[in-house]
Amino acid sequence: MHEHVTDRLRTRFQTLDRDGDGYLTGDDFDGEVSEILRATRVPETAPQARLLRSAYQAYWWAMLHDLDRDHTGKISFDEYAQTVHETDRFKSFGRARADAVDRFTDLDGDGWITRDDYKAVMLAARFDEAAALTAFDAMDTGGGGRIPAGRFAELIMEFYDTTGTADAAQRLVPAR
After folding, report:
1. Entry pTM
2. Crossing angle for the helix pair 26-40 and 115-124, nearest 10 degrees?
3. Closest Cα partner for 13 from 5, 23, 3?
4. What DSSP string runs through the chain?
């Protein structure tokens, strides 16, 4: 496996493992949504908050079903790394989450995601700030401090494509 693939797998797993216990659990995914809502000051009862939580829950249950080989109700890094290479399986349940995050991050619904809103979501999702902002800047080809809605979902899908080397997505892996 190429070094950039291993680094991306490790970064992905570590951002999802909110409590740092070495396992992915439903609480990790619920915690990420709660942190995103807190960081963006979106009430839990808002429609976009309910959509985001629903997409994260569906994503978690699909991952648990596909990746929990030892049926413990949690996913180890080894389980994650062994199975996640089958990107077609990822794409079947990852797209809904990516689209929900993208729609959510367009906080004012104007069709654009601002750098500040993107940053709030990415930091709440435990991404390295410098890496996240470098990725945003790579997507902000016009330099206006915003990207069109839909582009963030593409970034998420590129980042979770284990074998891909898309420039903006690879920038989400912190420099060593």
Report:
1. 0.87
2. 150
3. 23
4. --HHHHHHHHHHHHHH-TT-SSEE-HHHHHHHHHHHHHHHT--TTSHHHHHHHHHHHHHHHHHHHHH-TT-SSSEEHHHHHHHTT-HHHHHHHHHHHHHHHHHHH-TT-SSEEEHHHHHHHHHHTT--HHHHHHHHHHH-TT-SSEEETTHHHHHHHHHT-TT---HHHHTTSPP-
Cβ–Cβ < 8 Å for 161, 106: no
* Contact present, 16 and 60 (Cβ < 8 Å): no
Q: Please say whether the beta carbons of 15 and 9 come within 8 A.
A: no
Residue spans per domain, the chain: 3-162
Kindly report, residue by residue over 104-134, the tens digit of the pLDDT: 999 999 999 999 999 999 999 989 899 899 9
What CATH code is assigned to 3-162? 1.10.238.10
Closest C-alpha among 170, 155, 169, 12 to residue 83? 12
CA-CA distances (angstroms) from residue 114 to 5, 84, 155, 172? 29, 31, 15, 17
User: How many CB atoms lie under 10 A from the CB of residue 3?
Assistant: 8
| Confidence band for 165, pLDDT divided at 50, 70 and 90 | low
Token pair for 99: 């689209």
Amino acid letter, residue 134: T
